[in-house]
Amino acid sequence: EIVLTQSPGTLSLSPGERATLSCRPSQSISGSSLAWYQQKPGQAPRLLIYGASSRATGIPDRFSGSGSGTDFTLSISRLEPEDFAVYYCQQYGSSPETFGQGTKVEIK
Amino acid sequence: EVQLVESGGGLVQPGGSLKLSCAASGFTFSGSSMHWVRQASGKGLEWVGRIRSKPKTYATAYGESVKGRFTISRDDSKNTAYLQMSSLKTEDTGVYYCTGRGNWNEFDYWGQGTLVSVSS
């Protein structure tokens, strides 16, 4: 199975700053089949990005995804208070699907 | 409004069985793949498995840790997906979410989850 390694484990930033999150698969992902999710405490995850770079419906344009193969990035251009959460990448190009271990974006 | 409502969680002894249900509304259930994802307390997300739509022959796939013990099914006439769990282990404890996903992952709707506790 494909192992996804997310870094950093925790990102401490202030509102208004830019966040850059990394996701590196153990092998190349076919068809850019990578998604990003946001999860807040006590809530279900929410789809942000699919196909590595396409924003899901209703997701603000400060969220952007990029990358291919074995190197993917989620960027948040200017952090809003509601963006402090845990972010997971997920690959769905190969079975079994797998998630990264998550990156927590916390308020500095 | 899209809704997915999981039910059937609870306390079960190791080695026991449990069947979860996921009732969906507000989107084209029959054309969507249905997935189950779980999360142990304070831990990350783990994909459990999925069942595809009828045009894709209701194909199923499972995570390595549940393969052979869990079975996913669906009833399109009831807009409901199921997760049959057997030979449960303590490490199966967690919140179980069902999700409804588009063919190209263009949407992925999640329920609020149901808690499964495996303990003696």
The averaged pLDDT of chain A comes out at 96
Number of helices of chain A: 0
Can you tell me the residue ranges of chain B where pLDDT is under 50 for at least 5 consecutive residues?
Answer: none
Q: In this structure, how is the largest beta sheet of chain A organized?
A: 7 strands, mixed
Rg of chain A, Cα atoms, Å: 13 Å
Which range does the strand content of chain B fall in?
over 45%
User: Count the strands of chain B?
Assistant: 11
Low-confidence stretches of chain A: none
H/I helix tally of chain B: 0
Shape of chain A: globular
- Which series of helices and strands of chain B comes N to C? EEEEEEEEEEE
| Alpha-beta classification of chain B | mainly beta
Largest sheet of chain B: 7 strands, mixed
**Fraction of residues in β-strands of chain A:** over 45%
Shape of chain B: globular
What attributes characterize this protein structure?
heterodimer; A: 108 residues; mainly beta; 7-stranded mixed β-sheet; 4-stranded antiparallel β-sheet; 0% helix; 49% strand; B: 120 residues; 11 strands; globular
Can you walk through the features of this model?
The complex is a heterodimer of chains A (about 110) and B (about 120). Chain A is mainly β and about 110 residues long. Chain A has strands at about 5, 10-15, 20-25, 35-40, 45-50, 55, 65-70, 70-75, 85-90, 100, 105. Chain B is built from no helices and eleven strands. Chain B has strands spanning about 5, 10, 20-25, 35-40, 45-50, 60, 70-75, 80-85, 95-100, 110, 115-120. In chain B, strands 2, 4, 5, 6, 9, 10 and 11 form a seven-stranded mixed sheet that branches. In chain B, strand 4 (about 35-40) and strand 5 form a beta hairpin. The chains are: A mainly beta (about 110), B mainly beta (about 120). The interface between A and B is medium-sized, with 25 and 22 residues.
The gist of it:
The complex is a heterodimer of chains A (108) and B (120). With 108 residues, chain A is mainly beta.
